[in-house]
Amino acid sequence: MRIARSQNNPLFFAASSRKDLKAFPGEVQSEVGFALWDVQNGRTPHGAKPMKGFGGGVTVMELVADYHTDTYRAVYTAKFADAVFVLHCFQKKSKRGIATTQADVDLIAARLKEAARFYKQWKEQQDEPILKEGDK
Q1: N or C: which end of the chain has fewer CB within 10 A?
Q2: Which CATH class for the 2-126 domain?
Q3: pTM for the full model?
């Protein structure tokens, strides 16, 4: 996981999601970046919508940005109290209308599970007392 800091909640990037976002056109990167900044600071960005297929109280959100004739998506979760995870960033290439491919859905589900494991470890580290030099 890679991390980007803000004034509030940290933003973690799962697997290649940061690299994938950086491959988007500059205007799309800016649009998605500002939207993620809103999420980090406790706001729901304009146009963010829940992604279908992730029930059980898990909120997986999708940001959609159109650029020329292409569509780009960034999928994130803010289900954790004090962290935001970008799970997947990709260019929409579905041959079946607006549907997200099953391969992308499966990848998002796997990264969501990994994010939950990572978050648990991260929180445990945050709660550990910091020892100063000379402490045992």
Answers
A1: C
A2: alpha beta
A3: 0.86
